[in-house]
Write a structure and sequence with these properties.
The protein has 257 residues and is α/β, with parallel strands linked by helices. The chain has a single domain, classed as Aminopeptidase (3-Layer(aba) Sandwich), CATH 3.40.630.30. Helix content is 32%, strand content 22%. Strands 2, 3, 4, 5, 6, 7, 8, 9 and 11 form a nine-stranded mixed sheet that branches. Strands 1-10 form a two-stranded parallel sheet. Helix 5 (138-157) packs across helix 9. The protein is globular.
Amino acid sequence: MNMQDQLMDKSGVSAAGVPTREMLNGRNGMVEERLPFTVRIVRCDEQLSKAVHIRHSAYARHVPTVAAMLENAEMLDRDEGTVILLAESKLDGSPLGTMRIQTNRFRKLALEQTVTLPDWLQGRSLAEATRLGVTEGRIGRVVKMTLFKAYYQYCLAKDIEWMVIAARSPLDRQYEALLFQDVFEQGAFIPMRHAGNIPHRVLAFDVATAQDRWTEANHPLLHYMCGIRHADIDLSETDRAVRQEIARYNNASHAFA
C-alpha cells in the first residue's frame, strides 16, 4: 500500500477526516481543519527527549541494528541549520512522530557523507529529511503525512529549492508516489555509510513546482497538502522570518476546479 492509499479510505474521506477532491465538488479556497495532535519544532530538552524516544521505538521495529545507536540524541540534532519536528497527542502529550530536517546552509547534508550530488543539485538550497519515526496504527499514517506537509511548509518558508531524502526499501515507494525523482540511476540503491551501510535510494523534490505537478497529476493528496490550513502545524517557534512566511502560506487561497 502506498502513501496515497494509506490516507484514503473507501468512503472517499482521508484518515484524518479530510474530504477528497470529489467531495469538495468545486469548493474554492482553503479550509481549516483541526488534528488530534500538534506538530511543532523542538525547542527544549524535554521535547527532544520525546522525539528521541519515538525515533528509537520506530527504528527498533524496522531497523534494530540502527536503533541501537539511537537511544540518545545525536550531534546533528543540535547543529545549526537543523530542526526537529515533533508530533504530540493533544490528549496526553505523548509523542506520536518525529522528523529531522537539515538544510545545507551551514554544512553539507548528511547523505553527502556517502554520495556526491550531481551538478543540477550543486549550488542549490537543499533540505534533507532524516530520522522519520511514527507510532504504529492508523494515526501513525496520518502523522507521517502531516510531518511531510510540515517539511514541505518549512522548505517553502526557508526558500529551499529541493527536498532531498535517502530512503530504504520499501519507504522509497512512498516518496516516489509523492512525485520525488531519482537523483542517480532510476531505482538505484546505494549503501549509505552514515546509515549502517544499508542500501538507500536517493530522491529529490522540486519545492517550487510541487503544487503545479500535483495538480497536473490529479494527485489525491493535493488538497491535503495545499488546500487545508492546519493550525496544529506550528512552525512559528523558529524565527520571525519563518513566522511571516508560514502566515503568508496559510493565508493564500488555492482554487480547486
